[in-house]
Design goal:
about 425 residues; alpha/beta; 7-stranded mixed sheet
Length: about 425
């Protein structure tokens, strides 16, 4: 407490967090929790230690329940851990949760509770798409639920696709350059005054399904331009982080979503070539030391990192290009795409504001839950808060991890177009 040494508490706080990370890596969870308790008591106003302590408590409770055969409790606690920290990808937690969900699905199947078994197996398969145990169970249960139909002579009817208005224009250009000089590509469909921007891939190769989803939406509406009202223009930007997407391609296949070496390597490509998190580089509540969940922990061992927000708001060419594009084209609605194991829709932190109605309409249109609050750590400098501050409507949509969903998101774009028209 000596005022002549103001940084001692901060240094000790950081030391407690670092030691807790080391203890956790040695499976000494109780000792790690003790260190985090000391950090919380030392600097009560900083939330990172409290968040990590809560996560470790959930992890300890869930893994203990799993060892004791209490699958319901294990799934409840570990599921809460992964779902509340939307980027949580700890190999231990996910592997334990996955095994518990597969085991419970098998229990349901053995008891002939097939509908429950199928739902549980599908949830498990979504957690770890690269592990075939859950998918094999899904296939087996599906065969039991779907009897083989008797052969019929019913003729096949081919329905022609609807005619589209090919008079609607489509064009491609660049909204600016990345750090490494790559174009940030944009495709416009339509020529109306009311703009809707569909932006993907803030996190580069860490988030490839968001890029594929926006690219698929671009291709769909470019091929069906008649579905765009005459007074609307759609602007598709599949990646705002082309350097990380391109440079990280060789590492995507090695990342298994289990917190292993492949994930650690890929996490570096969640940032731009200046090692800045683009979704922490906007001016609302900007911080040089933002938090970002699992991609941060994999690289630095902690959930927040000094420098990840950049030297200042809009310090990066990618975020400046997006800012200038949205403002100069009078965009009314912005859909930002990400990916996650637990899909969700969010708007400005805490919900409310002009985009609340849009978020609830999107939830109804695409069947993804609207989550207004994110309790795990402070959200600094995120794009959606800036969009709200500019008077635009907007929403972040997280599609399921490693599952591009352009087809399922067509309804989201249609909803955005409705909200763009006064």
């Amino acid at each position: 407490r000596d005022p002549s040494c103001p940084d001692v508490a901060d240094k000790l706080y950081s030391a407690y967090l670092s030691q807790a990370a080391g203890l956790l890596s040695q499976d000494q969870t109780d000792l790690a929790i003790g260190n985090l308790d000391k950090a919380v008591q030392l600097v009560p106003g900083r939330g990172e230690a409290a968040v990590q302590r809560r996560e470790l408590q959930l992890y300890r409770d869930g893994t203990t329940a799993s060892k004791n055969g209490d699958l319901d409790q294990a799934i409840a606690r570990l599921g809460e851990l992964v779902q509340t920290d939307r980027e949580y990808a700890s190999g231990r937690a996910l592997s334990t949760l996955y095994t518990a969900e597969v085991d419970r699905a098998q229990r349901y199947a053995d008891a002939n509770r097939l509908s429950e078994a199928l739902k549980q197996a599908q949830d498990a398969a979504a957690l770890k798409p690269t592990d075939d145990r859950a998918q094999s169970l899904v296939d087996s249960i599906s065969r039991r639920l779907t009897p083989t139909p008797a052969p019929t002579n019913t003729p096949v009817v081919v329905v022609a696709p609807p005619q589209t208005n090919t008079g609607v224009s489509a064009s491609s250009s660049s909204i600016g350059k990345s750090v490494d000089g790559r174009d940030i590509a944009m495709t416009r469909v339509g020529s109306g005054a009311y703009g809707v921007a569909i932006v993907g891939n803030y996190m580069g190769a860490w988030d490839p399904s968001s890029n594929q989803t926006v690219a698929g939406l671009r291709d769909y509406f470019r091929g069906n331009p008649g579905q765009v009202p005459a007074n609307v223009s759609l602007y598709f930007i599949p990646t705002i982080n082309p350097d990380a997407l391109e440079n990280g391609q060789p590492y995507i296949s090695a990342a298994k979503g289990d917190g292993g070496p492949g994930d650690i390597q890929l996490a570096h490509y969640a940032f731009n070539s200046h090692a800045v998190d683009l979704n922490r580089n906007f001016p609302i509540k900007w911080s040089s030391q933002p938090c970002g969940g699992e991609r941060y922990r994999l690289i630095w061992g902690v959930g927040c990192h000094d420098g990840a927000g950049g030297p200042g708001a809009f310090s990066e060419p990618e975020t400046r290009a997006l800012r200038d594009f949205l403002l100069s084209n009078h965009i009314r609605v912005v859909l930002n795409y990400f990916e996650n194991r637990f899909p969700s829709i969010s708007i400005r932190n805490g919900g409310g504001g002009n985009s609340e109605g849009l978020a609830r309409a999107l939830e109804s249109a695409v069947g993804i839950k609207y989550v207004p609050n994110f309790p795990d750590y402070a959200l600094n400098g995120q794009v959606q808060d800036w969009i709200d501050g500019q008077g635009m409507l907007g929403a972040d949509i997280e599609v399921r991890y490693r599952q591009p969903d352009a087809g399922g998101q067509i309804a989201a774009v249609r909803t955005a177009m409705q909200y763009a028209i006064p």
